[in-house]
Design a protein that fits this description.
Elements: H1 9-19, H2 37-52, E1 56-59, E2 65-69, E3 77-83, H3 96-111, E4 120-125, H4 136-141, H5 147-152, H6 161-167, E5 185-193, H7 198-202, E6 206-212, E7 214-223, E8 227-228, H8 240-258, E9 264-266, E10 270-273, E11 279-280, E12 283-292, H9 295-315, E13 319-328, E14 331-332, H10 335-347, E15 352-357, H11 363-366, E16 372-377, H12 393-411
Parallel strand pairs: 3-4, 3-5, 5-16, 6-15
Antiparallel strand pairs: 1-2, 2-4, 6-14, 6-16, 7-12, 7-13, 8-11, 9-12, 10-12
Helix pairs in contact: 1-3, 3-12, 8-9, 10-12
């Protein structure tokens, strides 16, 4: 099919390049963590672009920034968006690309005066990257926040989201007023870089996401006994690190026996105590994060990890403790929307690959409120959360035009 209209690619390029300079430091990374100076400057810039386009600017109680077209408060909207906040030292496309493509799509509908059956909303969600735990904006919009969760949300420096928002003239409890009812959203679409190597390795320009992995994240402690490294025989040690080493070697077996091809498990941080070269480690603390797209598989992996750690601890005379840091349920994208994305791509002559998302996204929240779908574009060598993050301009243009035509089918056609 020939597209009835296309995005203004030079305009989108200019926006990507402009936002990529906001919050940039000497190490070339971006620092737009939620409610930081960089984030606030990015918000101000985005609001200016929305108003310059003649769209309605709306900021809800969770500080989500909306660009609206055709909004009347009566009809459900077709919503598209992502997030513009970053991890420390980030690349310029993670999240931001989805926000800017959404804005460009809505501008195109206005530029071409396309009649709308449903209003359009482009949204930039607050704190997807997790300074205060993650998904704050999309959780608020979906009604998943409580006063307790808001008061408990703190960053690594023990600054609460209440304090951070108050310092910017905002009231965090207003996030409770940002909740939308399911009947107010007709559908949700998110475009995102893949953040992995699959599309790049296969030479495919479009990923059609069929599901988003859930996860459990633990802080694990194995407690033995610190002792002299020279005088304590190997057979008499209660070496906490040896327990960690044994468990690390068991991870592949656990995934093979209890997981699926989509399962991944990571020990990303470990600390030994007391941490001296001549002392047997008495305690080891480490993180364990496990992901899969199937809730039953994730539950089986949870049980298997617990059983394995308990067995190792018992055999090595260690104490095993763990604290659940976070849990996210896997979600499936809407089957009808998956087909709409795939069919539209096929009609535009675009090669696609159906695939899961191993990373969490705002879509994970929206899929529990309305029908939701995701489009991936390739990440060069799978790089993300790094200044080396890059997606070719032609891949961005292809993904943006696909998103535009999917929105056209959702919002404009009878």
């Amino acid at each position: 099919m020939s597209a009835p209209f296309e995005i203004d690619f030079p305009r989108l390029q200019a926006d990507i390049e402009a936002l990529s300079q906001i919050g940039r430091r000497e190490d070339m990374g971006l620092y737009r963590m939620a409610f930081s100076d960089g984030d606030m400057a990015g918000r101000e810039w985005l609001a200016g672009r929305i108003e310059a386009a003649g769209l309605e600017l709306f900021v809800d109680g969770a500080a989500n920034v909306h660009a609206r077209l055709g909004w009347d408060g009566k009809r459900p909207s077709v919503m598209m968006g992502s997030h513009a906040d970053t991890v420390p030292g980030a690349g310029h496309l993670d999240g931001a690309l989805g926000v800017l493509v959404a804005l460009e799509c809505v501008r195109c509908f206005k530029d071409h005066d396309i009649p709308l059956r449903f209003p359009l909303e482009a949204v930039s969600f607050t704190d997807e990257e997790g300074r205060f735990g993650g998904m704050f904006g999309s959780q608020a919009l979906c009604g998943f926040l409580t006063p307790e969760k808001i008061h408990q949300a703190r960053d690594l420096d023990n600054i609460s989201i209440v304090e951070a928002m108050q310092a910017r003239g905002m009231n965090a409890m207003d996030a409770l007023r940002a909740a939308r009812r399911p009947e107010t959203i007709h559908a949700f679409l998110e475009l995102h870089i893949e953040q992995g190597p699959v599309l790049d390795r296969h030479g495919v320009g479009i990923g059609v996401v069929d599901g988003i992995a859930g996860l459990f994240k633990w802080d694990v402690r194995l407690i033995g006994a610190a002792n002299h490294a020279g005088t304590t025989p190997m057979t008499m040690r209660r070496d906490a690190f040896q327990g960690l080493a044994e468990f690390a070697m068991e991870i592949n077996r656990i995934l093979e026996e209890h997981g699926s091809p989509a399962s991944v498990a990571t020990i990303g941080r470990a600390q030994l105590f007391p941490g001296a070269a001549n002392v047997v480690p008495g305690t080891v603390e480490f993180s364990l994060e496990v992901r899969d797209t199937d809730p039953q598989v994730l539950s089986q992996l949870n049980d298997a990890c617990r059983r394995t750690l308990s067995t190792i601890a018992r055999r090595r005379d260690l104490m095993f403790e763990f604290e659940v840091l976070s849990e996210l349920e896997p979600v499936h994208c809407d089957k009808g929307l998956i087909e709409t994305i795939a069919e539209t791509a096929d009609q535009l002559g675009m090669e696609t690959l159906r695939m899961p998302s191993g990373a969490a996204h705002d879509t994970q929240m929206l899929a529990r409120l309305t029908r939701a779908g995701m489009i991936f574009v390739p990440s060069k060598e799978g790089r993300s959360h790094s200044p080396a993050e890059w997606t070719d301009w032609e891949d961005i243009q292809r993904g943006a035009n696909l998103a535009l035509q999917v929105l056209h089918r959702l919002a404009a056609e009878q």
